[in-house]
Structure formats: C-alpha cells, structure tokens
Amino acid sequence: MSLATEPTVKHSSRPPEAPKNYLNNGNTIASWLLTTDHKRIAILYLISITIMFGLGSIGAAAVRAELTSPRGHFLASETYNKMFTMHGVIMVFFFLVPSIPATIGNFCIPLMVGARDLAFPRLNLLSWYLYVIGGICTLVAIFTGGIDTGWTFYTPYSSMYSNTNVVLALIGVFIAGFSSITTGINFIVTIHKMRAPGLTWFRLPLFVWGHYATSVIIILGTPVVAITLMLVVVERTLHLGIFDPKIGGDPVLFQHLFWFYSHPAVYIMILPSMAIISEIIACFSRKRIFGYSFVAFSSVMIAAFGFLVWGHHLFVSSQSMYAGMVFSVISFLVAVPSAIKVFNWTATIYKGRVWFTAPMLYAMGFIGLFTIGGLTGLFLACLATDIHLHDTYFVIAHFHYVMVGGAIMGYMGGLHFWWPKITGKLYPEGWARLAAGITFIGFNLTFFPQFIVGFLGNPRRYHYYPDEFQVWHILSSAGASILAVGYLIPLGYMTWSLFYGRAAGNNPWGAVGLEWETQSPPMSHNFDEPPIVTWEAYEYHPVEHDHAHTEDDRTEEEITGPSPGVPGPRVGDKA
C-alpha cells in the first residue's frame, strides 16, 4: 500500500521588490553622476548646497565668536575679514541663489506641470556640474589664502590692492552664474511648452508662477554681474583703467553694475520662497489662495520693479541726489506687491481650518520675519535715514531678516512639505515642530539686537567696537548658537527618516496638484500617462485633512511617529 504525500510548497524568503522609482532605478555612482532625471539632479544639488551651507556657517560662527569681545581674542584683523567674506560669498552665491530653484524647483516643476522631465535634461545636468566647478574654484581660493574683499568685491580694493585670491574666487562665482542661467532657461521653456493638457496659466500652482518670475530675473540679470566680475579680473590682471580712479576708472560704475544684478538677486532668493509659502498655506488652511491672480501677478511685478531700485545702494556715493529721490520712490513702490502677498496669505488663513504641521509653522515664521525685514527696508529706502544707517549692523539685520528669516524659512518649509514625495518617508512631526520653534527663537535672538546696535551707530565689518555695544553682540552670538541647533536638528531627523521613517503614501497632506497624483517617490518618467487637468488651482475643501493622511487611515500620531511633546492643536477642531 502506498501513501499519498502532499506536494511541498516552497516559500521564497526574498522580500517583495519595491516599486520602481527614481531612487532605485540604477544604484551605481555613474547612474547618478550621468543622470538626466530632474529628480536625481535635484538630489545632487541638495547634497551640494547642504555642504556649502555648512561651510558658510563656519565663517558665520567664527565671526560671532570674535564679536563676543570688544577687542577680539580669536582672530587677527586680516583673518576676520576673510571669515566674513567666506560666509558672504558661499551663502549668497552658492546657497541662497540656487537653494530653492535648483533643489525643490528642479524636483517639482516638471511634476507640477505634468511633464516627464525638464525641457533640456542634459543642460540640467550641465548646470549642476557648472555649480560644482564654480564651487570648487571658490573653495580653493578660500582655503589657500582666503578672500578679504567682502562678498560685494568692491573696487578698487578688489581689483588693485587686495593681496588675497580674488581672481580665482571671481572665476568661481562667474562659472556658478552660468549654472543659474541654464536652470532659468530650462524652467521658462518647460513652463511655456510642456504643460499638461488643460493646465492653463491660471490653473498653474503659484510655485510655478514664482519660479517663472525668478527665471526671468536670472536670465536678464546674471549676465550683467558675470561681465562685471570679469571686468574686475581684467583690471586686476592687465591693469586697464575700468574701476580704479588712479588709472582713469570709475569705482561707482562698478557699484551700478554690481547692484543692477545684486538687488534683483534678492528677489531670486526670496520669490521661490514666497512661492513655497503659497503652496503650504493653501494646503494647511484647506482653502484656495485668496486673490490667486493678484498673488500670481505680484510675482511678476516684483521681478519687474526689482530691476529699477538698484540705486538705493548708492545713496551715500557720488550719485545725483535727484536720481536718489527717484530710486527712493521706486524702492517704496516695490514693497506693494510684497505686501499683497502677505495680506493675501493672511486672508487665506483667516477662517481656514488650519493644521499646524511643521511646514505650516515654518510658513507662519516666514510671514512674521519677512514682514519685519520688509518694513525695516523702508528705513533704508529713505534718503535721510539711510545716511545714518548705511553700512551699520542695521543693514546686516535687515538683510538677514529677508534672506534667512525669509528665504531659508521658506526653504525649510518646502523641504518638509515635499520630503514625503521626494523620499517616500515621513519624518517625526514632533521633532520637526520643535526645530521650527527653535529656529524662530534663535533667529530673532541673533538678528534683532543688530537692529538696535546698528541704530546706535555700530558699523559693520569691524571686529573692534566700543564697550557699550558688547551686550548686544553677546546676545546676538548666543542667539546664533540656538539658531545652529535649530538647523542641526532637521539634519538629524531627516537623515533618520531615510532609514527608519514610516512610508508616506502618495499624498500624506491631502494636498492638490499633479505632483501629489504620482507615487512616492515618483517613477523616473513621472507619469504612466500624460495627465489631463480639468480642475482649478487649489480646490481644497475645509474638512479634507481629517482623512488626508494616507490610504490606510492611520492617525496623525501614527504617521508622525514619536514626538518630544504633545502635537499642536488644529484651529477649528471641536473640543
């Protein structure tokens, strides 16, 4: 008699393969360094500018440590000059200008317009290589003798008299400028020619409008500063009389050419951040942006006015007083489109069902800090008060309230908002909220005392100062330490989330927009089929976020993971 035996079923011990996405579609170094996928190039930029941010912060830390004492104990005069120049050059040209367009913009714009990639993928990769080459040139100049001219490279000191590595640094900034130009060209062509069917101009996300205006500024303004910096190199190497009055040049001409780009460059840094704030506020207020068309056109107006106000940097130069009056009036007018944005954001939040996530906290911090920065700019746009405040710490504080309080708060808010889409992972929300609060407190403690000490007459770029200003400098240096903690915490938990973070799902925020219609992380070609847009921008409904986490109906605490405190309330929730 034979016994029947059941067939043996072999179970594979291999885990199921993860869906194909841009992160796992090729894992070799060459697949990254030679990629033309806009999403991977955005990650390359993200890594690069994070390194640059760290190096620029070292210069800032050295400056703040030196200024704790009226006579200085750590740095020689020449070294102090090199430290604040290192901080300014790296932060302005290699962090602030490319930070949002090259990272979040590069990642999101093709997704937002329903395209498979940017219009010129190879040009996009070239832009990153130009950025790296320019950065390496500048870092070599910094670490092999340094630069002591300040980030503005004012002539004739930079062109004739400085004994530091000015030429190599200028070449690095020159090359990095072409990186910005190629990115701007890519964005404009993509937005014009590659929008999905049905995605009309007034259905575009405001993020796209902001980057369109920014790209126009980049293309029109960057060649001017590139040529100007090359003229400095020519005068320094060939001793032609361009800017040095001793040999027939005009130093004020350099200031006109430099600031014709560098004031619009402020809007290159801040417009993308404003665009992020529009996305975040609409999502977490669960409302359509109040006055969508006004917010969109205000970006265009800021770009236009930005090219007409450079003369307010020359009020104390030999510039005509009558020209100064004209520039003063236009400088007041440029505040109007910025104010439109702030009022419309506030109106969007009003009676909205506000969800106090980390991105929303960064956005609200942006509104407060940018408003202070903008209002204090009016003091510098006024001829009479600028004479007293010019080249004091008041200018430093105003600039940082706009650039750090504005641009970086927006950058951090955007990074948190799209992190689940970029990585497919969720960060711990409680830690993110804590970091946003620490950053806000640390920033104000760092830079608000500088308004006071600047109004009292303390000039910038000096590391010796009267004893009565010491308390303000100590407060500022203490605040810088707190601010550094606020920046380091996100670096920790975002890195942690890459390995241990919970799966985000396709749309953890319940946001609207084409980028949220794709998987997380997105596939290499973005969409299986070209999307067709039949809805208006920001079609939110007030109760969406109660069921907007992920497909498996997890609670907010399950999504955000462990937090160091109790999650914040949501305005409008019933007790």
Determine the mean pLDDT: 90
> Any idea what the radius of gyration is?
25 Å
Compute the separation of the termini in Å: 75 Å
Number of strands: 0
Q: In terms of structural class, how would the helical and strand content be classed?
A: mainly alpha
Overall geometry comes to: globular
> In total, how many domains does the architecture comprise?
1
- The CATH class label is Mainly Alpha
Percent strand equals: under 5%
The string of secondary-structure elements, in order, is HHHHHHHHHHHHHHHHH
Main β-sheet: number of strands, strand sense, barrel status? Answer: none
Q: Kindly state the percentage of residues in helix.
A: 55-70%
Which ranges are low-confidence, i.e. pLDDT below 50, for 5 or more consecutive residues? 1-12, 544-575
CATH superfamily: Cytochrome c oxidase-like, subunit I domain
CATH fold description: Cytochrome C Oxidase, Chain A
CATH architecture: Up-down Bundle
The helix tally amounts to 17
Summarize the structure.
With 575 residues, the protein is mainly α.
Description:
- The chain has 575 residues and is an all-alpha fold.
- Helix 3 crosses helix 8 (251-285), helix 4 (121-143) packs antiparallel against helix 6 and helix 8 (251-285) runs antiparallel to helix 12.
- The chain is globular.
- It has a single domain, classed as Cytochrome C Oxidase, Chain A (Up-down Bundle), CATH 1.20.210.10.
- The N and C termini lie far apart (75 Å).
- The protein has 17 helices and no strands.
